[in-house]
From TrEMBL, chain A:
InterPro entries: AAA+_ATPase, ABC_SmlMolc_Importer, ABC_transporter-like_ATP-bd, ABC_transporter-like_CS, Mo/tungstate-bd_C_term_dom, NA-bd_OB-fold, P-loop_NTPase, PotA-like. Part of the ABC transporter complex PotABCD involved in spermidine/putrescine import. Responsible for energy coupling to the transport system. Gene3D superfamilies: 2.40.50.100, Nucleic acid-binding proteins, P-loop containing nucleotide triphosphate hydrolases. It comes from the Bacteria. It comes from Pseudooceanicola spongiae. The complex is composed of two ATP-binding proteins (PotA), two transmembrane proteins (PotB and PotC) and a solute-binding protein (PotD). This is Spermidine/putrescine import ATP-binding protein PotA. Belongs to the ABC transporter superfamily. Spermidine/putrescine importer (TC 3.A.1.11.1) family. Keywords: ATP-binding, Cell inner membrane, Cell membrane, Membrane, Nucleotide-binding, Translocase, Transport. It catalyses: ATP + H2O + polyamine-[polyamine-binding protein]Side 1 = ADP + phosphate + polyamineSide 2 + [polyamine-binding protein]Side 1. It is an enzyme of class 7 (translocase). GO terms for molecular function: ABC-type polyamine transporter activity; ATP binding; ATP hydrolysis activity.
Automatic annotation (TrEMBL), chain B:
It comes from Pseudooceanicola spongiae. PANTHER family: INNER MEMBRANE ABC TRANSPORTER PERMEASE PROTEIN YDCU-RELATED-RELATED, PUTRESCINE TRANSPORT SYSTEM PERMEASE PROTEIN POTH. The chain crosses the membrane at residues 7-30, 77-100, 134-152, 164-186, 206-228, 266-284. It is found in: Cell membrane. It comes from the Bacteria. Belongs to the binding-protein-dependent transport system permease family. CysTW subfamily. This is ABC transporter permease subunit. One of its GO terms (cellular component) is plasma membrane. Residues 78-284 form the ABC transmembrane type-1 domain.
Length: 373, 296
C-alpha cells in the first residue's frame, strides 16, 4: 500500500502558492537578495534558514509587503503582488518582537485585524474566542501584554496573526525570545496549529534545529542566495555543499583528492594514510579536490581495531559529556581532529574511554557524503 | 540614615521655598490693608508673648476672600484665564504634535540638531522674546508690512493688544514644553507596532490614530499640563501683548500688588489661583506616576 506523503513540490501539476521569479533586492550598494527563484506550496511549513544577514528576513518582508523587490516578480496564487500594499495582502506576519499593542488587552489585540475588516460584532467575538482557545489564552484575555510572560505573549502574537485566516502566515524568528524548553514545546504547538488551520507557514530562523523540527521543507540561505532547498532529512543526510553540511548539525569535513572507480571513490586525504572509501553517484575527475562530510554519530569508536571500510587510529583529546550522548574529539596523527559520538548506554563511572586513550574510529563506505564544493 | 538624608533634601527645599512663603501669603491674605509699611495689619508682635499671638490671630479673617466674590472682575479674570490657557493649550498641541512627530521620524543623526533648534530660544531672555513679538505684530510691524507688500490685505491688521496676540505669545513661548514630552514618547515608539497595524489591515492614517496617538497619550497629557498650568498664571505675555482688554488673573494679581498696593486682596487672589491649579497639578502627577508604573 502506498502511503500518501505531503510532498506537493514533487507533483508537477501542483501550482505553487508563492513564486519568486528572479527576485533581486538591493539596499543602496548592498545586494540583500540576488536573482532568487523559489516556489512555496499551499499548506507547507517552509523554513528559511541562514546566518544573520543572509537575506532571509528581507525575503520575508517582501512577502509581507514592507519591502519592494528591486527587480523580479513575486506571485501569490499566480498574481503579481508588487502593487498590493501590506494592509491589502492576504498575508499576516508574526513579528520577532511580537509587536503586541501595549495599550490594548489580549482580546483587543487579537480582534484588531478583524475590526479593521469591519466585520460584525458577533462574528468577531466568535473568531477571537476561537483563536484564544486555539492558543490556550482563555485566562489572559483581559490582560495587557506587559502582564504576560514571554511564552504567553508569543501565543498572543500567533493568535493575532492567525485571526484573519491569512492565506500565508509569516513567522519572523517566532521562538527566539523563549528559553530552550519552552521553545521545544512551542515548536510542536506551532506544527499542531499549522496542521489544524491548514495555513501555509513561512518561518524565518537561524536555529537549524528549529527549522528541522517544524518545517516540511527548509531553504538554506547564504549571502542572498538559496544554497539548498529540500526536506529536513535530505538537508541533513544529503547536503549538496560543504556550507550546508557544516551549517546543519555537527560534521567532520575531510579534504582530499578523488580517485573514482565506478561508484566507489578512494579519497587520498593525508600522506602515509590509506585512502578513505565513499560512494557517490557523481563523476569525479582523477585527483579532483573533494570533501568528505561525516556526521559524528555515524562514526564508531572502539578500543580494538574493527572490521570496516574506513578505519583510522587516533588519540582522545577531549570528551564532551551531554548526558545521553558523549562527543569525543579524536586527534589523528595527521593533525585532523575528528568528532565522534556515541550513546551513553552505561553509567558514566563505567565509561570505556578516557582522555589520551588510543582508539579506533571506523565508518562504513556509505556513511560519508562526498562533496565537490 | 543616608536614605533619610537624601529624602530630606527635596523636602527641605520644598519647605523653605514653597511652604513657608505660601504660609506667609496665606497670612497676608487673611490680614487687612493698611497705610503702613508693610502695607497690611496685623503684625505679629512676639514681645508681648502669648497675648500678642492671641491678639494677632483674632485680627485675621476671610474678608478678602468674600470681597473676591463681590466684585465680578475677579471671577471673570479667573474664567478668562482658564479659557485663554485652555485654548492656547489646544493650539500648542495642534502645532507641537506634528513638530514632535517630524522630529521623531527624522533620521537619527538629525534628531539632536532638531532638538537643539527647539531648545535654542531659551538661550535668549523670555522678556526680550515677548517684546520682539510687539515689533512683529504691531500695526507698522513686520507681519503687517509683509502682508501689505504681498497684497493680501489693504489695511494693517490689529493683532497687537488683542487676545489673538496673547494666544500667539503663549503658543510661541510654551511650544517647547509641548514638543519635548511628546517627542520623548514618540521616539520610544517601536516601529514594528506600526508595521503590525498595517499588516493587520490598517492604512497609514488609521495606524496613526489607532497606534501612534494612543501610545503617545502620556506625552500629550504631560505636554498639555506643562503648557496649561503656567499659562493660567501668565502675566508678562498678557500685559505686554494683550493690552488693556485682555483679562487674565496674573495681570489682576500684579495690579493689586503694585498699582493698588492692596497686598491682602492680592494674596487672596494668589491663594485662590493656587487652589484652582492644584487640581490639574494633581492630575498631572497621577499621569506621571501611571507612566512610571507602566514602564516598569
Amino acid at each position: 500500500m502506498q502511503q500518501t506523503v505531503f510532498a506537493p513540490w514533487q507533483d508537477p501539476d501542483e501550482k505553487p502558492l508563492i513564486q519568486f521569479r528572479n527576485v533581486t533586492k538591493k539596499f543602496g550598494d548592498f545586494t540583500a537578495i540576488a536573482n532568487l527563484d523559489l516556489d512555496i506550496y499551499a499548506r507547507e511549513f517552509f523554513a528559511l534558514l541562514g546566518p544573520s544577514g543572509c537575506g532571509k528576513t528581507t525575503l520575508m518582508r517582501m512577502l509581507a509587503g514592507f519591502e519592494m523587490p528591486t527587480s523580479g516578480k513575486i506571485l501569490l496564487g499566480g498574481e503579481d503582488i508588487a502593487a498590493v500594499p501590506p494592509n491589502k495582502r492576504p498575508v499576516n506576519m508574526m513579528f520577532q518582537s511580537y509587536a503586541l499593542f501595549p495599550h490594548l488587552s489580549v482580546w483587543e489585540n487579537v480582534a484588531f485585524g478583524l475590526r479593521r475588516e469591519g466585520r460584525d460584532k458577533g462574528e468577531i467575538e466568535t473568531r477571537v474566542a476561537d483563536m484564544i482557545r486555539l492558543t490556550r489564552l482563555e485566562k489572559f484575555a483581559r490582560r495587557k501584554p506587559h502582564q504576560l510572560s514571554g511564552g504567553q505573549r508569543q501565543r498572543v502574537a500567533l493568535a493575532r496573526s492567525l485571526a484573519k485566516a491569512p492565506k500565508l502566515l509569516l513567522l519572523d524568528e517566532p521562538l527566539g525570545a523563549l528559553d530552550r524548553k519552552l521553545r521545544e514545546e512551542t515548536q510542536f504547538e506551532l506544527m499542531d496549529i499549522q496542521e489544524k488551520t491548514g495555513t501555509t507557514f513561512v518561518i524565518v530562523t537561524h536555529d537549524q534545529e528549529e527549522a528541522m523540527t517544524v518545517a516540511s521543507r527548509v531553504a538554506v540561505m547564504d549571502e542572498g542566495k538559496l544554497v539548498q532547498v529540500s526536506t529536513p532529512d535530505q538537508i541533513y543526510e544529503a547536503p549538496t555543499s560543504v556550507y550546508v553540511a557544516d551549517f546543519i548539525g555537527a560534521v567532520n569535513i575531510i579534504e582530499g583528492k578523488a580517485n573514482q572507480t565506478g561508484d566507489k571513490v578512494l579519497v587520498n586525504w593525508a600522506e602515509g594514510q590509506s585512502p578513505l572509501i565513499a560512494t557517490t553517484t557523481a563523476m569525479l575527475q582523477k585527483d579532483q579536490t573533494c570533501y568528505l562530510a561525516i556526521r559524528p554519530e555515524k562514526i564508531a569508536i572502539s578500543a580494538e581495531r574493527p572490521e570496516a571500510a574506513n578505519v583510522i587510529e587516533g588519540e582522545i583529546l577531549d570528551i564532551g559529556y551531554l548526558g545521553n550522548i558523549s562527543t569525543y574529539h579524536v586527534k589523528l596523527p595527521s593533525g585532523h581532529i575528528i568528532k565522534a559520538q556515541s550513546a551513553n548506554t552505561r553509567r558514566i563511572a563505567r565509561r570505556s574511554f578516557t582522555w589520551e586513550d588510543k582508539v579506533w574510529l571506523s565508518w562504513s563506505d556509505t556513511a560519508a557524503i562526498l562533496l565537490e564544493r | 540614615m543616608r536614605r533619610l538624608a537624601l529624602i530630606l533634601i527635596p523636602y527641605l527645599w520644598l519647605i523653605a521655598l514653597f511652604l513657608i512663603p505660601f504660609v506667609i501669603v496665606i497670612k497676608i491674605s487673611l490680614s487687612d490693608v493698611a497705610l503702613a509699611r508693610p502695607p497690611y495689619f496685623p503684625q505679629l508682635d512676639l514681645t508681648e508673648g502669648f497675648t500678642g499671638i492671641k491678639a494677632f490671630f483674632s485680627e485675621l479673617d476671610f474678608e478678602n476672600f468674600t470681597f473676591l466674590t463681590t466684585d465680578d472682575l475677579y471671577w471673570k479674570a479667573y474664567l478668562s484665564s482658564l479659557k485663554i490657557a485652555g485654548i492656547s493649550t489646544i493650539l500648542t498641541l495642534l502645532i507641537g504634535y506634528p513638530i514632535a512627530y517630524g522630529m521623531a521620524s527624522a533620521r537619527p543623526e538629525w534628531r539632536a540638531t532638531l532638538m537643539m533648534l527647539v531648545i535654542l530660544p531659551f538661550w535668549t531672555s523670555f522678556l526680550i522674546r515677548v517684546y520682539s513679538w510687539i515689533g512683529i505684530l504691531s500695526q507698522g510691524g513686520l507681519l503687517n508690512t509683509f502682508l501689505l507688500w504681498l497684497g493680501v490685505i489693504n489695511e494693517p491688521l490689529t493683532i497687537l493688544n488683542t487676545e489673538i496676540a496673547v494666544y500667539i505669545g503663549i503658543v510661541y513661548t510654551y511650544l517647547p514644553f509641548m514638543i519635548l514630552p511628546i517627542y520623548a514618547n514618540l521616539e520610544k515608539l517601536d516601529g514594528s507596532l506600526l508595521e503590525a497595524a498595517e499588516d493587520l489591515g490598517c492604512s497609514r492614517t488609521s495606524a496613526f490614530w489607532l497606534v501612534t496617538v494612543p501610545l503617545s497619550k502620556s506625552g500629550i497629557i504631560a505636554g498639555c499640563f506643562l503648557v496649561f498650568i503656567p499659562a493660567i498664571g501668565e502675566f508678562v505675555i498678557p500685559s505686554l501683548l494683550g493690552g488693556s482688554q485682555t483679562l487674565m488673573i496674573g495681570k489682576v494679581l500684579y495690579e493689586e500688588f503694585f498699582s493698588n498696593r492692596d497686598w491682602p486682596v492680592a494674596s487672596a487672589v494668589a491663594v485662590v489661583l493656587l487652589v484652582i491649579l492644584i487640581i490639574p497639578i494633581i492630575l498631572f502627577q497621577r499621569n506621571e506616576q501611571k507612566n512610571r508604573e507602566a514602564s516598569q
